[in-house]
Structure formats: C-alpha cells, structure tokens
Amino acid sequence: MPPEPDAIPVSLALQGGGAHGAFTWGVLDRLLEDGRCRFEGVSGTSAGAMNAVCLADGWTAGGRDGARASLAAFWTAVADSSPFAPGDPDAESGRLPAATRMLLQWSAHLTPAQWNPFDINPLREILAARIDFERLRTRCPLRLFIAATHANSGKLRIFGNRELSLDAVLASACLPALHHTITIDGEPYWDGGYSANPAVFPLVWDCVSADILLVLLGPLHFTETPVAAADIRSRLQEIAFNNTFLREMRGFAHLAEQAGRSPKRWWQPRWAGGPLERRLADLRFHAVTTEAVLDQMPAESRLAANRAFFDKLRDAGRQQAQDWLTRHGASLGRQPTLDLGRLFY
C-alpha cells in the first residue's frame, strides 16, 4: 500500500450490533472513499470485529479500494447465506420472517447444543473464505484490537494482530444463547459486548494517533421508557451491552478533566506533565452515530440478514458519514468534536 503523507492518522472504535453492523460498513465505505484520513488502530467488538478484520485484510491487500471491496464482499456473503428466499416486500424493515422468530422463541428454552447440535455457523465459512488471517498476523499495517469475554470470569480479552485467528473473531460475536462457546487455548469465550463494546483504551495507550473516531450503533439516550415486557427485556439487553462502554468513556472524561486541573508553573508549556497528562491533553474524540436511523427499528432487526436491509443500512451509514465529514471533517487533526464531559460524565 503506498504511503499517504497528507492523510490524517485516525484510530477507529467500532461498536457491535449484529446486522446493524452494515451501518458501520457504510460509514467506513464513505470514509475510505473520502480519503482524508488513514487508519492506524481499529478496535472492534462483535459486528465491529467483523468490520475491523474485513477493513484490515482488504487494506493490507489493496489499500482503500481493497478495503471497500472486502467489506462489500463480506456483507453480501452474509446476506446470501440467509436460508430464506429474497424478495420479501418487508425485508427493508428489518423484521424477521415468522420461521426465524419461532426459532428464536425456542432458543430461549434450548441450549445451542440442543437446537444446533452440529454447530452450524455461516460466519465461520464466510470469514475463512475471505480473510487471510496469516497475512493479518504478519503484514497488516493497521493495529487491530478484537474484544471477547472470558466466559468463566467475565474478564475482557483483547486479541491483537499476532493473536488473530478465525476463532478469535468468532468469539467476539459469540452470543451464548445462539452460538456454541468458542474455545481458544483451552479457554471459553463469549461475545465481547459483555465486557467492552468496543474497547477504547487500546487506541489511547497502544496507538499514536490523537484522533479517535467512534462508530456507535447503540443510542446514547433513549427518548421513551419501555412499558411492554418484550420492550423492557430489549432495553435491559441494550443497557447491558452499553454499560462497559459508557463506564470507560466516563473514565476518560474524568481523567481529561483532572488532567486539565493539574497545577502548572507559569513558565511550564501546555505539554508539561507526565506521559498520561500529555496523552490525555492531545486526544481528540469524534463520533458517527446512528441518531434516528436505527432507533425506530425493531430489536429483532439486529438478527436480520438480507441484502435489501443491509443495503439500506449501508446507504444510511454512508449518508451519516458524509454529514459528519461536512460538519466536522475540517476538525480532524485539529480539535475534538465530541464533548466527553457532556455525554458521558
């Protein structure tokens, strides 16, 4: 991949959200097309992990165009793997076919080993066919941080480039009610969203770029309080998957505030202080959010898999990214566009 001296280095934090990850595909596609930023580190959880490895593998093989092609090929393959016939007039709504809803109801009473005894997982075949994990481990210029949750302790496990494997990415998206537990080196792992969605700290401490762009699939604030039992369960799941991220971002907001209050002598320059203070002072956070795009969709849409729905989300992601570039693109490399204190503290 040729160097891009004029591009602004940016690290990415990609949230998980099942099928809603196609929105992130659209965001990344527009950013790659725009070309004003180059990516240093990418942290991803669940669907965010899928987007991260597709982006990185394509980027390693063919630069920006390769990354765009890799993302498109992955989401097209996921859509084509659906066992249900295309052409459903309600496909774009994200509502699941009746047969899928019935299967999900049964899954609440059966273990994955009972209702899926052969551990059929289309993502395994799709990723194995399209991602060169050896190349990611040895030649990838992007720093990858893939989050999974240790099933027996709840601890966060970050898989970096040298540890990347097909199982590591599958572990990041392993919902234990739907998928068989992923075992790596004798240890069991579940979806990374239970412990980090996504993990931001590796981008702060293990990367150099001061600009960190969050691509968020979950709302930061809900407009209504659920009343129906199903809606309450859905909200509880949302809260569970967002808690670790919100807590981590609140921690960064608090640290940045404290660093700003640190007393300095009149003769000390702005960058005086320890490495922690200097790093926090330099950070510039940004975010592309779903806003009203996904808020009105049913919770079940996270499990929808069809090309019409994915294309709709991709186009929405591209538009949100374009809107963000129009409003804030000039701030990249200059100033933050996300007020951590207001949103998280």
Q: Could you walk me through the main structural features you see in this protein, from its secondary elements to its overall organization?
A:
- By secondary structure, the chain is α/β, with parallel strands linked by helices.
- It has 13 helices and eight strands.
- The radius of gyration is 20 Å and the shape is globular.
- 38% of the residues are buried.
Write a short abstract of this structure.
Helices cover 47% and strands 14% of the residues.
Element layout with pairings:
Layout: E1 8-14, H1 21-34, E2 37-45, H2 47-80, H3 98-107, H4 112-115, H5 122-130, H6 133-138, E3 143-150, E4 156-159, H7 166-172, E5 182-184, E6 187-191, H8 201-205, E7 211-216, H9 229-261, H10 275-282, E8 284-289, H11 292-295, H12 307-328, H13 340-344
Helix pairs in contact: 1-2, 1-12, 2-5, 9-10
Distance between the termini: 40 Å
Work out the helicity level: 40-55%
Rg calculated over all Cα atoms = 20 Å
Order of helices and strands: EHEHHHHHEEHEEHEHHEHHH
The count of helical stretches stands at: 13
- Could you say which overall geometry the principal axes of the C-alpha atoms support? globular
Low-confidence stretches: 263-268
Q: Largest sheet at a glance?
A: 8 strands, mixed
Number of strands: 8
β content, as a range? 5-15%
Average pLDDT figure: 86
Given helix and strand content, the structural type is alpha/beta
